[in-house]
Each structure stands twice: as structure tokens, then as C-alpha cells.
Amino acid sequence: MTTDREVDVSDKTQPTDETKSKGFQQDGKGDKAIPENRKDEKDERLDEALEETFPSSDPVSVKITK
């Protein structure tokens, strides 16, 4: 039995069907499977972007979105 201040979270920490739905990828290769997402490719694109925008007051975003 729990009081008003105590919360039983044991059932909330278990995986649910919601997290196993097709909207959530489980055990996939993810971004690592895409050649353009390799670290050396990202570093090269970041270096090029820095060269193209230097000197500028706005820094280049490190996060690369598609």
C-alpha cells in the first residue's frame, strides 16, 4: 500500500507495448548504417562549413540535420 507521498513506479519502469510499436526502432543500425554519417565525413563537412562562414558572428551548428 502506498501513501499520498509514495509512488509505486515498479510497473512504470518496465517496457510497454507502446515503446515496442513500429514507431520505435529497436536494435537497428540507425545512423551508423548511412555512410554520410561516419565521423570523418561529419568532420569534413563541419570543416568546410567553418571555412565558408569564417569570419562570421554566427557559429556553425555542430548538429547536422537532414
Automatic annotation (TrEMBL):
<feature type="region of interest" description="Disordered">
    <location>
        <begin position="1"/>
        <end position="66"/>
    </location>
</feature>
<feature type="compositionally biased region" description="Basic and acidic residues">
    <location>
        <begin position="28"/>
        <end position="48"/>
    </location>
</feature>
<protein>
    <submittedName>
        <fullName>Uncharacterized protein</fullName>
    </submittedName>
</protein>
<feature type="compositionally biased region" description="Basic and acidic residues">
    <location>
        <begin position="1"/>
        <end position="21"/>
    </location>
</feature>
